[in-house]
Amino acid sequence: MFANEIHKKAEKALKEGNIEKAISLYTKALKKSPNNVDIISDRGVAYLNLNKEKECFSDLDLAITLQPEYAYRYACRAFAKRNFGNLDGAILDYEKAIELDPSDSIAHNNMGLLLEQKGYKDEAEKRFKTADKLSKAEDGLLEMMDELEGSEECGVRSDESEDGARVESEEKEYSDRMKEFKKVFTSTEQLKEFLGFIKNGFKIR
Q1: Cα dihedral 130, 135, 141, 146 sign
Q2: What is the value of pTM for the model shown?
Q3: Which one, 17, 89, 127, 194, has the greatest CB density within 10 A?
Q4: CA dist 88 to 66, 67, 84, 92, 125, Å?
Q5: What residues have CB less than 8 Å from 142, skipping those under 6 apart?
Q6: How many whole angstroms separate alpha carbon 154 and alpha carbon 71?
Q7: Can you tell me whether residue 1 is helix, strand or coil?
Q8: What is the C-alpha end-to-end distance of the chain, expressed in Å?
Q9: How far is CA 132 from the centre of its chain?
């Protein structure tokens, strides 16, 4: 969620590629919402787009100071450090991001890229495999939601044999679980929003 309307306009300007305007708006937004960590971090990213290293890290460092337990802040600074050629510093920040959020597939993948660039191929491969597993797990949830949306009810087979009864029982249990899942997440878009909510440190944005 945006801190104020000026913050929202700044984000729009950034997406449109009007970086200078975005920075000006972020600064104005901060006057209305002093020390808002999202505005500060967003402005740091805007400075990154202009290759203004000092200003970029001034904001990203402050964002971490204000929100030291939020994995995304470290991942964001890691990306900036990599952009400015500080690979070792980027690795340290990604390590911290992963420590705070081990399920962040993007952080694992980016860490792998850095380790590969540094020549640590075995360590990089481990990160890539972890990132792949986490990504597939997330995709699996989305696929399951798609299947649920395509079917009103989960079918249960009828079979009078002992094995058939066991299978029927297992399928009924699965069906019940899926119905409960669908009560919570009524659409794929809702599930995507929830996954994004987790990635964003349990914050609506």
Answers
A1: negative
A2: 0.69
A3: 127
A4: 23, 22, 11, 6, 18
A5: 188, 191, 192, 195
A6: 38
A7: coil
A8: 4
A9: 14
CATH number at residue 26: 1.25.40.10
Residue 160 main-chain phi, psi, to 5 deg? -85, -10
d(CA 119, CA 113): 10
Residue with tokens 């006057």: 31
Question: Could you tell me if residue 33 is inside a domain?
Answer: yes
Q: Are 9 and 32 in contact (CB under 8 A)?
A: no
- Are the C-beta atoms of 203 and 197 separated by less than 8 Å? yes
The number of domains in the chain is 1
Instruction: Compute the residue count for the chain.
Output: 205
Is residue 147's pLDDT more than 90? no
Longest dimension (CA), the chain: 73
77-94 pLDDT, tens per residue?
Answer: 999 999 999 999 999 999
Taking the CB of residue 142, how many other CB atoms lie within 10 A of it?
13
200 within some domain: no
